[in-house]
Histidinol-phosphate aminotransferase
Amino acid sequence: MSVLDLARPEIRTLQPYSSARMEAGGGQIMLNANESAWEPTGDAGLGCNRYPDPQPDALLQSLAALYGVRREQLFVGRGSDEAIDLLVRAFCRAGEDAVLIQPPTFGMYAVSARIQNAAVIEVALAADFCLDVHALLAAVTPAVKLVFLCTPNNPSGKSIPRADIELLAKALAGKALVVVDEAYVEFSDQRSVVDLIERYENLAVLRTLSKAWALAGARIGSLLAGPEVIALIRRIMPPYPLPMPCVAAALAELSPSGQAMARENMAIVREQRTIMRKALARLPCVREVLPSDANFLAVRFDDAGTVYLRLLQAGIVVRDIRRYPTLQDALRITIGTPEENARVLTVLNKEST
């Protein structure tokens, strides 16, 4: 059975839109897309009067090298959110199919499914935020087409062991596409599972430049999967998903000097994460600091609501995650610069006195 048998049949046979840029054919005088012939003010040579390449070759090449995949195993879109949305639309028939998630987890899996009118099946994480593989497999029905795994998990920060991911990919072959969201993997000691897509055609990986690569505002995310899945997603992608300034920002960040600076900052985050975890754990107002492999810490407080407001009054915005199951007393604190982190501790120390 091919992984494409899991996809919606009407998507498999869909005639994709052929954009003017796809049909350009390397011409010099571009009169096929009804664009302006004049560059806009402040263009800085980007050529924003022209439509961008839907999947820019230079960016594909840089990201393929970064992630260790071939270009035909890579789709680039507007953040991981777009890839999630496209996966749901490609694999889930409205009113018939379902996705499976493990709360507490990233909210866009369920949002994208509900927009598509796909069901959302939930298998809660254990009290220590570990994934119960056997419970997950027991919850899979023929309607489940996508299983989303977030590792390191947002909002807890806990990683899923590589062996568990491989077990699920093997057990769900021919049944569901396993989508591993590795938005925070650069901050973890556990390596990516991207190499497993060669072994399991029903495994896909989400990556992003928003976190470790400092490009949240550029909205560059990737889907890594077998060529068949990538080709399917490209059938339904928007005609021009990647703005030229965003592509330019990504290429600059992925240059040798850009990567060197980013990796220095990743090391600072890891070091500061350890410092913050120890310092927060010593505060009287803190019940627990959850272990984290990401660039944030989920922290349980005696009175999370009061702490949130006290930080906000000091100009510090953290994430209120009390709406998540088993985290009703917690806030999520991103690891900032050493100076920002010190300011958080100063405010919380005052809160504790």
Q: What stands out?
A: Residues 256-281 form the longest helix (26 residues).
